[in-house]
Every structure is written in structure tokens, then in C-alpha cells.
Amino acid sequence: MSTIARTGATGLDGMLPELVQWSSSYGHDLSFAREDLLGSAAHVTMLARTGLIPVADAQELRDQLVALFHDAEASRLALPVGEEDIHMAVEAELGRRLGAVAGRLHTARSRNDQVALDLTLHVRDQAARRLEELADLARRLIAMARPLVALPIPAFTHRQRAQPISAAFLVASWASALLRAGETLAFVLDRTRLCPLGSGACSGTSLPTDRHLVASILAFDGPTRNALDTTGDRDFALDWAWAGARVLLALGKLSSDLVDYASAEYALVTLDPAVSTGSSMMPQKKNPDIFELLRGKTATGIANVVHLLTLVKGLPSGYNRDQQEDRVPVLSTGPTLAACMRAVDLCLDHVHFRGDRGEAALADGFTQSTDLAEALVRKGVPFREAYKASGELVRRATSQGVHLSALSLDDVRDVHPELDADCMNVLDPRRAILAKESYGGTGPKAVLRSLDELQLLAGRLHDRAQLVPRLDALLAHLAHVPLEMR
Ligand code: ARG
Q1: Probe ligand 1: pick from 30, 85, 119, max atoms within 8 Å of CB?
Q2: pTM (predicted TM-score)
């Protein structure tokens, strides 16, 4: 027979033990035990300050909650097993330690607002930590890009060689996408600024609580505005899952590029053995498994978004137990992001661009045919006419089986009278890259300017993340908030 729900505090002990066990969220809830303990410590502080419970009782309760928090931090939290969720388990443990005093803890709150608080604190804390790591990773990419401004590689569109770019430009594009995903994490921080606690089950409380005090102790801007909305709301969880998916998608694109570029067919990068795997059957293989796994992790991120969207779709107002099924997507997002960003961070030193292969891929000049057309435009030729002339040169070179630069000057003039040796110089891929100094282009000055701007953005996001007080800092501060009535 199961030992679940021993407290019987919910007033019902008639449920089939197997169903109580099946419906328990306790195992998952342990991931936000610290958030739950911190929230309860803030709550008893408020209960004492408003005179709702005696100061001496609040002191005892808060001391125990603080001790349990430290146990949780040290991974030695021991709560009674067999409770329906973390909230009941904490109350049961306090009951074991303090007796009847523990019965005062749940004054003027419900598990519905309690779990909303726990999840909000969790998401805020995790989003801030991940944003800090993301900004650091972006800064690493920026540093990696700077020395590569003169290393030519082809850019691909439709998986076809398209135009010459610098390797710096590619790496900067990864940093740019990553920081854009970081902006969605910053948005999550904006969406977790209000404190759900004190909403009660769905309509508030008749007791004279002070929700603003709880909110300020927990570093929120204020309390949420509608108890019914608050207890049924998981929009912040959706925003979190979405931001997580966006980060994973950004890492997935970087990974997909590297999987291609490391192949023998592209050979635009080499991966050190430190980040490659072998095949159990083919001795010659050096596989990019780590980047394939990173690309594969996007499935988890996307699944989390779909999971939560599907979960909240069709729910009526107010708390519904379906909401408890938010645990896996909400709680898996932080660790998944941390692990994936760490993996990329570990790999970056072991990725080497091959300028020789980049130049070889651009040597036939065809990827510079747009540059050739632009050289004619500089001479006053309308773009469409220049485009046709450049296209004709490509056709002639292809039919003669030679590089564009190997066409004779006579051939070239025959195609368009304005074409001369000067125009043909742009076929040099290095020159083609040097010339593209439009804002956001691949020219070295443009790339360095963009890297400076990305660096500023990374700094701003890092600062934003650091403004969020960490759970342990909040608890340390809480222990000194007076309990005496104001
Ligand atoms: N374990 C529940 C959850 O995580 C806590 C809230 C339970 N509320 C209720 N009315 N049964 O959602």
C-alpha cells in the first residue's frame, strides 16, 4: 500500500492510494524546492508583519524554511516521501519539526498561487542564468570572428555556392542569431516581473494580507493584478519554452553549418579529434556527432513549446489540474540550454576554418559574377544590362570549360564594350569581399563594425541578466527582514 498523502491536510484521505501516487507531482517539484521554500519564507514574513500570525511562530517557521533551503542548496534536502506535491511535503516536514505551528503557514494562500509563484521564480532565475551564459557565448563567437575578417569562404544559398564572404562574417551571423534569441530570454525576464503569491485559490482572500510586501521581498515589481487570471496563467512558461526553442534553433543552425563544412565535400573547416567521433565500423570516419546532437536538441525545444501550447489550449479560467503537466517542458528547458551552450563553448577552440579550401571553392570566379555586374554598374551601365553581360560571360566560360578570369580580354569586350581589365579584377574573391562595405555586408570594416555592435548588445543582455537577484541572495536578504508588525 502506498504511503502517499500522509498529511491528509487537504481534508480528503479517501482517494485510492494508487491514484494519489499517479497524480502526484512531487518528483518533478523537487526541482523547484528552493523556490518553494523561499516563497514560503517570504509568505510567513508577511503573515507576521500584518499581524496574521504571531511573530514567534513566524520566526520558528522562517528559521526552519531557511534551514531547509540550505539543505536543498547542498542537495541534502530530506522531505517526507509520499506527499502529493512539494507544498504538502514541506508542510508535513514543518509539522514534524514544529507541531501545530506548522498549520499557520498556509494562511491566506493556496497551492494554486504557490505553484504559480514557484514556477515564476524558477523561470525568472533560469532565464537570467541562461541569458548570462548566452551573452558570454556570443562574446566568444565575436572574439573568434575578429581574426577571420580576411579569410574567404563561399556563402551558400539553396546549399549552392553563392557569393564570397569572410569566415568572420559567418561567425558573426551565428553571434547575431544567438543574441536575437537572447532578446527573447530578456523578454521572459520582463514577463516574470509580477508576483502571483497571495492570489489564493482563485479570488483573493478576506484576510488583511500585504501582497506588495511579499512582491518586494522577492524582488518583483509588484503583485499580479487578477487572482483568477494568475492561478490559471502559464503564459510565462510558454514564453520561456519559446525562448528556449529560439536559443536551440540558433545553436542548431551553427551546428548544421559545421556538419556540412566539416564534410570531405566542403572541407571548409576541420574539427579537432577532441570534438569528433569515430565510427564503430568505418575506420576512416571522423564524424561531427556533437553538432548533430546539438541540431537534434532543437526537437526538445520545439516539443516543449508545442506541449505547453497544447496543454493550455481550451483550458477554462481558473486553476485546472491539467496545469501540473507543465513540469517537464518548464523544468527541462533550463538544463537543456545550459548543456547545449556549454557543449558549443567547449567546441569552439577546436573548429578551424580552412582559407585554402575557401579560396579553391571561389577560384572559378562564378560566385563573383554579381560583383562583375556591379563593376559595370559603377561605369554607368544599368544593372539589368550589366547582369545580362555578366551572365553571358558565365555561359562562355562554362562552355569553354574555363574559369571566368581565364576568358580573353577580346571575348570579354565582345560581350560588353565597357568591360575591361579593371572590371575583371573583381573576380579575385579577396577583392570581392573587401569591396562589400555596405552596412551589414561582408567587407572587413562592415564586419568589424557589426562585431562592435554585437558586443554592445551582448553586454546589455549580460547586464540585464545580472539585475535579477539569485535565489540564494533573496534568501539571505529575507532572513533579515523584520517580523514585527509595522
Ligand atoms: N501539484 C499541483 C500543481 O502542481 C499544485 C496545485 C494543486 N492544486 C489543486 N487545487 N489540486 O499544479
Answers
A1: 85
A2: 0.95
